[in-house]
Amino acid sequence: MASLVLSSLCFFPSQKPCFLTSSLRFSFGAPTGSRSGGPLSVGFGSVEKRNGRIKVSVYSRASPLVFRDLDADDFRHPLDKQNTLLLRAIPGLNELGKALLGTMTEQIMLLENIGTSVRVSKDQLPELHKMMVEASGILNIEAPDLYVRQSPVPNAYTLAISGKKPFVIIHTSLVELLSRKELQAVLAHELGHLKCDHGVWLTFANLLTLGAYTVPGLGGFIARSLEEQLFRWLRAAELTCDRAALLVAQDPKVVISVLMKLAGGCPSMADQLNVDAFLDQARSYDKASSSPVGWYIRNAQTRQLSHPLPVLRAREIDEWSRSHEYRSLLKRATQMGVVEKV
C-alpha cells in the first residue's frame, strides 16, 4: 500500500523540508550547520567546573506565573493567525487529513521512538520530567510524552499523529548545549506547536502541496507556489512558539540566549556569550537589509527557509516582551504553588 509522505521540519532552517513518512515534526530551529562542541555533561543538572572539581546543580526555579485560562490566540503571532484562518477556510480539509493519517502510522512511529530513545517519567530523568510538567501547567495544556535521543546534532521536535497523544523528542547534544532554564524554554516552544494545533494545519498544507503535483500541466507551478506559502506560514508559526517559550521562561533573555546558542554557541564558550550583543547584531542586520538591494537579498535569503533567521527571532521576542499584549497576559496570570503530578 502506498504511503503518504508529509514534510517534517528539521532542527536547522533549510531550503527544503526533510521528509518523514506519514508524520509531522516541529522543531525549535537553528542556523544551518551542526555544532558538536565537547560536552560538559550528560545529565540534566547544570554543570560548573571550579578548581578542577565538577559541581552539578539540580533544576529548580522560583514559583512561576501560570496562565490558567490561556487560549492559543492570546499569544499567536499575527502572521500565524492570518495564515491559519486561510487554512481553516478550506472545506473538508480536516476530514481528509484524518482519513489519510491512520492508526498504522501512529503504531510505526510509537514503536520506532520507544525502541531508539529513553522515555522520560517521574522515575526516569525526573528533573527533565518536572520541567515538562511545569511548562505544560504554565501554558494550560496536557503534558505530552517526552523522549531523549542520542544524537550529536542539537534538536528538539514534536510528533503529532492522527490526533493521538503527541510526544516531544530532544537530542542529548541539545541538553549539553543549554542551561536548564533554556532547555525548558525549548520544551515550551514545542508545547506552543501543540497548543496552537500546528500539527493539524501543517498536515493540511502538505496535503494541498502534494495534491497540486497531481494536476497535469500547472501542477508543479501550483505546488511551488503553495510550498512558498507553506514556508511563510511555518516561519510565522515559529514566532508564535517563541512567544510560548517566553510565557514559560518569563524572561526574554532566556529565550534570546537559546537562539544565540543555536546560531553559534557551544558548551565551552557558553559563559562568554552576550545576549545584549546578539540583539545589537539583530539591529545591525535590520539596518543592513533596509536598502532596496538589502531587502531583495534578505527576501531571497529567507523565503525558502522553514525557520526565521535567529537574529530576527531574537528581535521579535525582545519587542514582544515589551509589548502591552505580553504585559496584559502577565497581569492575568496566577502564581504556581506546587507542580502537579502526572
UniProtKB/TrEMBL annotation:
Cofactors (names): Zn(2+)
InterPro entries linked: Peptidase_M48 (IPR001915)
Membership in a protein family: Belongs to the peptidase M48 family.
Cofactor: binding comment: Binds 1 zinc ion per subunit.
The protein, known as: Peptidase family M48 family protein
Keyword Zinc tagged: yes
Superkingdom per UniProt: Eukaryota
Keywords: Hydrolase, Metal-binding, Metalloprotease, Protease, Zinc
Organism expressing this protein natively: Theobroma cacao (Cacao)
GO CC aspect terms: chloroplast thylakoid membrane; endoplasmic reticulum membrane
